[in-house]
């Protein structure tokens, strides 16, 4: 199980329908009318589904309108008082580009074909459109933030408009969203389930920039950054070409791609562990111990160590079949699995799937089974919370082409995998753990949408491979700017504090990701950083104080948008210079001086060489930090500050913003 999204999905279809009906009853019938147009095969996608009542288009930029009709159709497009004629191409796609409009204008959009088919969208505002994306801390809704009652009841500014992009992962880039939603006016009905960070950011920013705000939330809990980058973008990184080739094969030949991934998985395991637990011989040997008869979360088994186990577990089972059963086409249903499985039948890889408790079914063509004993092996990877083959019992079975079934619940054996084995490869077509799928399904369909900027809140799922994050984040920004505009502002929310307290220096993937986020933001003149190291919760990966995240993001946005002095995110480290037994840390963009809170000897500083790091005494001197080294300190290559999963960071500036974690190379004077 990974993160909050498993139990806190986005708007359900029932709620979406209820909101739409509520809009109609309030005298706003054209949302329903637009849906009827999209549901009518004769006019399907005349306008792209992103165009609905109450939307916002970006001010001061050309407005692109697009959609679909029969190839060769003449389409008249009217935006406000402007009108254009265009003709669909051979694929039936059309688009029209209008001159920029000014903030505050209220427009209507009409599209009419030469055959008289018409679609209309009303109550379009012109303002700033922001794309909010990432994993569960971006998806985290207003109704779970601090003071939800008062935040939901309002008041809400009706010029803030909300659009949630439904979860979707696709192998290839899509032209349209698979489950399009409609734009909503901010209200007690629409705000509760919307992204808290995104909403609070817009509310704060609108108090400074009085224009309508259009917010697009495209986020997915547990997702890795690789899932949000296009295939072309990932190829520029250079580390994913083989997996991207497998993904491309999967688009045309799923069986061949799956078989190839099975070979890759088996090779990884044999290299890491030196065994073959999926083979007949291994299953016959019945490794491990009997699992409880009823399928379920392994934390509930009352077996020592399993209540805390995170990682992999092997499940194996034997089943006897007769000749008639073995001769048929068949399917194996493994029930719900949390969260990633790799599965074999009679030593043959049959599939790998990600899902938080979702059912697994794999094809077993003729020849896969045999009369007599058949061997099943399932490797389950769980990285958070509940895990295992969770059933229900009746969903775990073999199904045959003649309609008969054989139950598979019970009689499983299990063997936990030591963490030293590492993490297995992930199928590139996975959703949260795969490559490019979320870009294809959720970002690519935004196509020609013009934006004021983007907010990115992600990284928790990449802390296990933190060294690669800096390059991937730069790749994502370049990739999205290629779609939305080369100078698009980008706000990066740095990971909050979460996890174990440290009383000794540690190698922290969380700290490494935070420093990567800082480095990318510092090099990028159109980026801002949102430091949250002091507003997290070390026991909760989803800290509820999203209001302060939104406030700091708005502050950073104002600096980026208006080329303000400094960074807008607080004091940042400039360099570390050593002279004899001292290292002086200097800072830029210090507003109101540096302050060590609740201490006269600020802590959290480490001096490091190639082998290890040690805490060192520090003192605050004007706007510098002076580190004192012991006489035997020797060569110090770099220094670190607040370098842990959940560090305590006492250094702030006069504006009340914390100095975030950092690592700096030491320069000898």
From TrEMBL:
Pfam families named in the record: SASA (PF03629)
Keyword Signal: yes
Signal peptide: 1-25
Keywords in alphabetical order: Hydrolase, Signal
GO process terms (BP): carbohydrate metabolic process
Domain spans labelled Sialate O-acetylesterase: 427-558
SUPFAM superfamilies associated with the record: Galactose-binding domain-like (SSF49785), SGNH hydrolase (SSF52266)
Keyword Hydrolase on entry: yes
Molecular function per GO: hydrolase activity, hydrolyzing O-glycosyl compounds; sialate O-acetylesterase activity
Protein name: Sialate O-acetylesterase
Phylogenetic classification of the source organism: Bacteria, Pseudomonadati, Pseudomonadota, Alphaproteobacteria, Maricaulales
């Amino acid at each position: 199980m990974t993160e909050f999204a498993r139990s806190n999905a986005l708007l359900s279809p029932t709620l979406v329908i209820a909101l739409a009906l509520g809009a109609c009853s309030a005298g706003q019938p054209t949302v329903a009318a637009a849906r009827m147009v999209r549901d009518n095969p004769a006019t399907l996608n005349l306008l792209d589904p992103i165009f609905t009542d109450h939307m916002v288009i970006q001010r001061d930029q050309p407005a692109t309108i697009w959609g679909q009709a029969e190839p060769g159709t003449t389409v008249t497009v009217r935006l406000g008082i402007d009108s254009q004629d265009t003709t669909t191409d051979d694929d039936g796609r059309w688009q029209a580009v209008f001159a920029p409009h000014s903030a505050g204008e209220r427009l209507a959009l009409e599209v009419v074909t030469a055959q008289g088919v018409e679609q209309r969208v009303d109550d379009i505002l012109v303002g700033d459109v922001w794309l909010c994306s990432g994993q569960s801390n971006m998806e985290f809704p207003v109704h779970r933030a601090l003071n939800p009652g008062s935040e939901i009841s309002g008041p809400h500014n009706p010029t803030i408009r909300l659009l949630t992009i439904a979860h979707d992962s696709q192998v290839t880039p899509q032209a349209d969203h698979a489950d399009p939603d409609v734009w909503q006016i901010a209200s007690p009905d629409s705000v509760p389930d919307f992204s808290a960070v995104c909403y609070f950011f817009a509310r704060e920013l609108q108090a400074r920039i009085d224009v309508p705000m259009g917010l697009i939330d495209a986020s997915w809990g547990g997702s890795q950054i690789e899932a949000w980058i296009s295939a072309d973008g990932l190829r520029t990184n250079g580390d994913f070409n083989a997996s991207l080739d497998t993904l491309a094969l999967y688009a045309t030949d799923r069986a061949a791609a799956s078989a190839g991934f099975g070979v890759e998985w088996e090779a990884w395991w044999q290299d890491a562990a030196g065994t073959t637990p999926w083979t007949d011989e291994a299953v016959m040997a019945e490794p491990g111990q009997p699992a409880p008869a009823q399928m379920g979360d392994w934390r509930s088994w009352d077996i020592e160590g399993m209540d805390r186990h995170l990682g992999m577990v092997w499940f194996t089972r034997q089943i006897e079949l007769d000749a008639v059963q073995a001769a048929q086409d068949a399917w194996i249903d493994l029930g719900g699995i949390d969260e990633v499985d790799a599965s074999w039948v009679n030593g043959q890889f049959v599939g790998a799937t990600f899902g938080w408790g979702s059912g697994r079914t794999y094809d077993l063509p003729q020849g896969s089974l045999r009369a007599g004993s058949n061997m099943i092996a399932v490797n389950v990877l769980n990285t958070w919370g509940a895990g295992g083959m969770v059933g229900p019992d009746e969903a775990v079975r073999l199904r045959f082409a003649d309609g008969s079934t054989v139950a598979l619940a019970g009689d499983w054996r299990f063997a936990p995998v030591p963490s030293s084995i590492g993490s297995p490869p992930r199928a590139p077509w996975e959703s949260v753990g795969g490559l490019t799928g979320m870009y294809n399904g959720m970002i690519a369909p935004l196509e020609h949408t013009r934006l004021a900027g983007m907010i990115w809140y992600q990284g928790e799922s990449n802390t296990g491979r933190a060294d690669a994050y800096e390059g991937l984040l730069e790749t994502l920004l370049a990739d999205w700017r290629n779609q939305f505009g080369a100078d698009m502002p980008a706000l990066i929310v740095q990971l909050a504090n979460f996890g174990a307290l440290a009383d000794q220096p540690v190698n922290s993937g969380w700290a490494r990701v935070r420093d990567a986020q800082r480095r990318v933001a510092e090099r990028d003149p159109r980026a801002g950083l949102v430091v949250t190291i002091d507003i997290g919760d070390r026991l909760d990966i989803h800290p509820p104080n999203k209001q302060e995240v939104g406030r700091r993001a708005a502050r950073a946005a104002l600096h980026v948008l208006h080329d303000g002095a400094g960074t807008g995110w607080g004091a940042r480290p400039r360099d570390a210079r050593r002279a004899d037994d001292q290292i002086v840390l200097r800072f830029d963009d210090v507003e109101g001086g540096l302050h060590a809170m609740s201490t006269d000897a600020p802590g959290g500083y480490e001096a490091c060489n190639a082998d290890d790091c040690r805490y060192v005494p520090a003192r605050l001197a004007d706007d510098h930090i002076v580190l004192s080294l012991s006489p035997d300190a020797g060569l110090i290559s770099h220094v670190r500050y607040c370098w842990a999963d959940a560090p305590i960071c006492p250094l702030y500036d006069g504006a009340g913003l914390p100095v975030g974690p950092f690592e700096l190379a030491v320069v000898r004077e």
